[in-house]
Amino acid sequence: MKIVIIEDEFFSAEKLTLQLHKIDASIEILAVLTSVESCLHWFRNNPEPDLIFSDIQLEDKESFELFHQLPIEAPIIYTTAYNQYAIQAFKQNSVDYLLKPIDIDELRAALKKYEYQTYRMLKKSHLTRPEKPREDYKERFLVKKGSGLTVIKINEIAYFKSEQKLSFLVTFDNVKYAIEPTLDQLTEQIDPKKFNRISRSRLISLDSIKKIHPHFNGRLKLELHPAEEEEVFVSRERVQAFKDWLNS
């Protein structure tokens, strides 16, 4: 298991490292980061870890700022001396919330929780979603365009994406429209032969894929049409389902 620790207190980071290695000697600590700025630099230049342990109050800002700025998919276990951040933490892909000083039994339980959630996600990604009758899938979307409305047909859509809790469709002409359904809802509404959920924030059409590149940590990097400003990846737990979709 590869882990990144986000912690600005040296002794807290050292103690957590020792506790993790006591639980599982094979755990690899990829980095210990002390500020949001250093985190932004590291995550932009390295593959994501399997798991993140993150304090909340860092040298420069709260760690929530990192996850607002970057679409990090790795699950997070928060470690903090304060309990008032719990609700906000669980909105940020949090597995657990541990109060300092960290009890090793609570740490062990949090790791078990992470392993169980990872197992469930892998199992779910290998299940074939029952197909609805062809006529039940959405064929068009009514969207706002300027001061009026327009209809976008499904074959005009390259991909769907979520940004800051809002959903959008992007056409092959590279026009983005806000839509009401969430990506979870769209995954059930769209023909799975034509679109695939490659991550929590992307649902892409087969025709939007230009190139596929193997990437670090078991992920796949995609070049899409139209191109995205940020890099687009198939998350590790969805890679096999994605390959099965391409082969179907």
From TrEMBL:
Sites of 4-aspartylphosphate modification: D55
Native source organism of the sequence: Rhodocytophaga aerolata
Domain of life assignment: Bacteria
Protein known as: LytTR family DNA-binding domain-containing protein
GO MF entry, a single one: DNA binding
Domain spans labelled Response regulatory: 2-115
Residue ranges occupied by any HTH LytTR-type domain in the UniProt entry: 141-248
Keywords recorded for this protein, A-Z: DNA-binding, Phosphoprotein
SUPFAM superfamilies named in the record: CheY-like (SSF52172)
